[in-house]
Amino acid sequence: MTRLTAPAFSLAGIQWLLFMVVNTVVVPLSISTAFGLFDDAAAGLIRTSFVVTGLVSLLQARFGHKFPLLEGHGGIWWGLMLSLSAAAPAMELSYVEVGGSLALGMLLAGVLTIVLGAAGFTSVLQRIFTPVVLAIYLFLLSVQLILFFFKGMLGISDGGSLAMPEGLLPIAVAAAVLLMGISRRRAIANFSVLVGLIGGSVLYMLLFGGAPSVSGGGSLFRLFPLGGLHVHIGIMLTAFLAGLINMGNSLVAISTAGWLFGEKSVDGRIKASYYVTGAGTVLGGLFGLVPFGPYSSSIGFLQSTRIFNRGPFMLGSLLFVVLGLIPALGSYFSGLPEPIGAAVLFVAYIQLFGTAVHKIRELPFESMSLYRVTVPLLIGVSILNVPPETFSDFPVLMQPLVSNGLLVGVMLSVVMELGAGRKRARRASV
After folding, report:
1. Per-residue model confidence as pLDDT tens digits over 315-359
2. How many whole angstroms from its chain centre is CA 290?
3. CB 348 within 8 A of CB 194
């Protein structure tokens, strides 16, 4: 691992900080809008998100899995919260009741994650998340988020129209970051994300206006901002299931990091990570945040920058905590142009897509394994390209599951792999 000079170390830490900002800020913003929080309440949720994300990332790097992986708001949890808030009228529930039931479900899921991690549930998850399932998860995750960031980069509206000429600059930024990332000159490749984000943001604001605000406010660590604890069995069970799936996400992200760092076994790291992820899930329930998990996009970020040192990541995490504690700084960085952030993340997920392709290439492609890869992949991608309204006739609590191509593809892959495992076991016993 390359030893960094002090200036390079500092720049790498700032680069991690900005990566955390663009990955994090949209999540509490969307949750605030979905649950009807505005002004000080929304600002407080954003600042709390910054502080807690930085803290749990620091804890993971120091005491958990100890890889430089952002411990951010889990995509599975994020989609679930948005879906349930949208379905609240159909369920004849208020946002406060939905938020309170989710909070209770998160608290239970966080405790479950800690208990199962301590009980050695990792071995069970490893039997479920085979190399085939892991490859499919990475592939569908990268496709899902690349689609999301592609739309954000071009400013594509719900009606399908493009934001032009504003959309041309993010395309240029994405191309520049990609070219810098594959440059043979390490000084250029290492800071491609930082140059793209800062340079692109400055150009965007000069050309199209919209400089970030320096005003801020809102109270940190407000208990149950989405609603006081409420019992709704269906929502609680759905949140409970999301916690189990999030444990699988941790397994995939840390296993992929182990592959990137050349480690053959990461069992101990995975077990340690569940304590921090469980605690982060509890904090999410208490403070109205989307619960946490290791971000697989960090793998793409590491591959883009080629800086694998843990120190700059910890510096970036610490700076992120400071960012949330200072209202003016937090509000300023949260106002960076979203299309530029989406363009930079688009490149990071291209790298993650490459990792998924590499893992699929490692699989033996006889006829049966070919179907075990292609069927879940194609069904998952198909659902990703279908509007969620298509599944409106399903029961409300099933809609977040059946309309999510990532979850359907991964669950189908798990079922097919378990079936294939039983067939192999029967053949071996004959």
Report:
1. 999 999 998 898 876 666 656 677 887 788 788 777 777 777 877
2. 10
3. no
Distance CA 192, CA 67 (A): 21
**How far apart (Å, rounded) are the C-alpha atoms in residues 154 and 118?**
45
| Residue with the larger pLDDT of the pair 399 and 130 | 130
CB atoms within 10 A of CB 419: 11
Residue of 261, 212, 280 whose CA lies nearest to 51: 280
Does the reported pTM lie above 0.85? no
What are the structure tokens assigned to 184, written together? 């043979």
* Residue 292, strand partner residues: 73
Contact 306, 193 (CB under 8 A): no
Higher pLDDT, 128 or 217: 128
Q: Which two tokens stand for residue 173?
A: 């930024």
Q: How far apart are the C-alpha atoms of 61 and 68, rounded to whole Å? A: 6
Location of structure tokens 């329930």: 285
